[in-house]
């Protein structure tokens, strides 16, 4: 049994580490195996950075970058045209300048001259007689490092990294706790978010059961007990949020905040529905399918006429806490999964949700965050995140009915994710220490931190784009980000770091690790298939 077989677990990990060391010299990087020409790809990237990401026009296309601080692609800033102005001179750092007739001009003509780091832009206006009218605008911004590969290669195969990361759970007390309990171990404080973390516990246990027969019996028991906790704490069938487990539990982390007590994040029950479907697929106990369907049907009942759902609601009444609306990409994926299982009742709701994003969110370009540990904001563009936009881009790219315009929009959304959240390199501090692991992806404006889940979002979107376009630059970027997952993995335990940054202690979110494991396994399968087929160049 899992809880008593520690010697076998240690022996397995010693074996894995030994094999890893023996094979270290034999392991050839994915970049080398695929023959990626980085000299050409780096030049391609520099040219692409000259094209702005969805520039506003002051008429029908809004300016989304009001709160943006850093850019990889040449930006266009929102300045007000000046009366009697015939032309403008844009000057950066008092040394780099260009003349233009439009105050809404991109910085493209000088972008390759702008230094990495902090910069100051001043726009001066002049009349047709070349007389200075006045300052028309000013903006501080940071230019980020461009993509310049190759970066540090993977330190082990993606499959080995995934398996070590998955089996790390097998000797964690809070995971083994579920063997004999249907209540969470609150020493693992992230159990304060049951839908996200306990739901992921079920999915992780199911994956272990599928991939390691030795642990199958114990892993199934863990999954069943964690699932039972979620079922026992779900709302009754006559509640507005019937079948929904709570978003918050206990008094740890932000569950104790006044703004979160008695509240629920609408998109988090999706984690539980997916987890129950995972468990049903493994052991075929219909109660898990029924509960997953119950959650999905509650979403049907709560969908607004425009196809949306609120971000956050009162848990008992279902009444929204404010006007902020969710970006339901994860729910669309759940509906798609149920359709594959033969349940067609969700198709209309799925299409309404899809059209809501396409017709309301995309035109506004408001890719706001919807995190249970952050205050829900309603000010447009205040807290943008990759976590809503990258999955939508992936959804567009994988949809067989997507139009040419949809694909073009999806590719632009991936550029937005790179522009605003992807970090290819940083400067070392005065002691020569790099504060974060790069390449990486920041999570959101209000949490400028590299998170493995965010990197996976961008990796998966990049790979969906590569699948459509066969552009090797997209593949190179995805591989570079995936390599960082392995670099920040603890070699001895298999621990996959959630935060790729130098800091005391280890912040560990199970849902993020699960995303990394799935992404590593996907990349391993895809790249091995690619290596054994045609060259990607």
Describe the structure.
This protein has helices spanning 6-23, 30-33, 38-48, 158-167, 173-176, 194-211, 216-232, 269-283, 286-302, 329-340, 347-364, 386-398, 404-421, 452-469, 472-487, 510-531; strands spanning 70-71, 87-92, 96-100, 117-126, 132-143, 263-265, 312-314, 422-423, 440-444, 447-450. The chain is an alpha+beta fold and 537 residues long. The protein has a five-stranded mixed beta sheet with strand order 1-5-4-2-3, with no helix packed on it. A three-stranded antiparallel beta sheet has the order 8-9-10. Strands 6-7 form a two-stranded antiparallel ribbon. A hairpin with a 2-residue loop joins strand 9 and strand 10 (447-450). Helix 8 runs antiparallel to helix 9, helix 13 packs antiparallel against helix 14 and helix 14 packs antiparallel against helix 15 (472-487).
Q: Which descriptor suits the 3D outline?
A: globular
Structural class of the helices, strands and pairings? alpha+beta
Head-to-tail CA distance between termini: 49 Å
Low-confidence spans: 1-25
Largest sheet: 5 strands, mixed
Number of helices: 16
Strand order of the largest sheet: 1-5-4-2-3
Number of strands: 10
Residue fraction in strands: 5-15%
Helix amount, in percent?
Answer: 40-55%
Radius of gyration: 25 Å
What are the secondary-structure elements, in order, as H or E? HHHEEEEEHHHHEHHEHHHHEEEHHH
- Residue-averaged pLDDT: 93
